[in-house]
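Table S7 (text form). Paired inputs.
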Amino acid sequence: MNAETRGPVPPGTGWPGDPATAATPVARSAEDVARLAAAAPHLAEVDARASVCRACPRLVAWREEVARVRRAAYATEPYWGRPVPSFGPPDARVLLVGLAPAAHGGNRTGRIFTGDRSGDWLFAALHRAGLASLPTSTSAGDGQRMVATRITAAARCAPPVNKPTPAERDACRPWLVRELELTRPTLRAVVVLGGFAWQALWPALKAACYPLPARRPAFGHGARVELPAGPLLLGCYHPSQQNTFTGRVTAEMLEDVLSAAAGYAGLRPGDTAR
């Protein structure tokens, strides 16, 4: 990609891992998101349609402005500048749900949790737990491969100050709902990174017709909920810089939750399947 061309990368122009083409339908409203997500026949198409979404004007303006201005440290690099698709195989047994892409992380690299400090922590722990082939994730073309694991987010666009509005969260929900529907045959464990994602996940599970407990359990690190005829939900503090710098979450805490998810899903370090 030409680093001098500022702004978001058009679909189908050769960015590694870009799931969309010039013909991928574009959602321009919350109603469009609901319609296009529900009609997506498989996860590759969910990723493609989500990656060109323009339903939330504030988020579109922000992510594209970040891609034009860029951080000084990345001034010579092109920026993805679009909604960030999920990453991992369609038959995943473990699903990680985060908040949203980082402005100079996923919004720059085009891969969720890639190119920032949170991702450094997360992928190192995923690798130790046997859920990622490499301990680092630096770019969309670095050879990283998930092991029966998929990473997604409650909001697909980088939001200002890392805070999507309730309306933006709700508009984005159908992408997650369809993802939960399509992964259901293989899904065994869901790791929820942070309180925002925990709150966003429950209505998505309900819309995807998962049986839920009568009362929504509170979020906490190590929170554990076995859904009736569904996956195990595990709460985990988000590996944000604020949490890792203060010791609220440690590498061991992160690895413990991911290893619990892997074990519940029947995966062990060293597995190479999928």
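Next pair, protein 2 of 2.
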Amino acid sequence: MTTRPGAGPSSREGADLVTPASPDSPTFPLVAALARTAGELDELVTHCRACPRLVAWREQVGRERRAAFRDETYWARPVPGFGDPAASVLVVGLAPAAHGANRTGRMFTGDRSGDFLFAALHRTGFASQPTSTSADDGLTLTGVRITAPVRCAPPANAPTPEERRRCAPFLAAELRLVQPHVVVVLGGFGWQALLDTLAELGWQVPRPRPRFAHGAELVLEHRDGRAVTLLGCFHVSQQNTFTGRLTPAMLDAVLVRARELAG
């Protein structure tokens, strides 16, 4: 089994599952349907090699490394979700950053997007500390879990539609296991991917699909009677945070609203 850098031995929960394909197979993400807990799912995610382009890129970045991190060992694997396994609030991003989560092995950890997000999670009472620098920095999340539709760092931060579809079973399994009451969606890519996955899981998604917008609030019902609220938020990318398109106050407001709805 694989361990994250500095995180100690990983769970072996996923080791006993009978998998329908090798990690290199395009069908490997379907193994997510067998996961019985979030811990099992996380372990399975880390072994996936189903997308050759993403595997090649994440490993190349891990070998060549950025100068500032040249002495570090990069994670260079798919990145599992992070946070409370029984969270009422799920935060959905895009994909791991090449020198952030692809380096540290933890979602939104080790880059400026993560600095912005975790500072807000701390201010709103979801995170134990305002920084997220490494997988063993002591950070814990309460009531919230962070994930993404694509689990490998993509070239130019742009996964292809096929890569997104291939990775979708992992997001579907996470939604099934966590069953959040509220989902905060960071950016239009995550919004579209989430709506596609929710529709496949039996949620009643309107046609035409509701468009992403910062501050958007969408309540969806499942055929079994459950409800979930989606909250749109501009992504915490430097392109948005450095230009003021997304301010700390704007992000805090979305997270406070998520807490209210989940409460």
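The CA atoms of residues 79 and 151 lie 5 Å apart.
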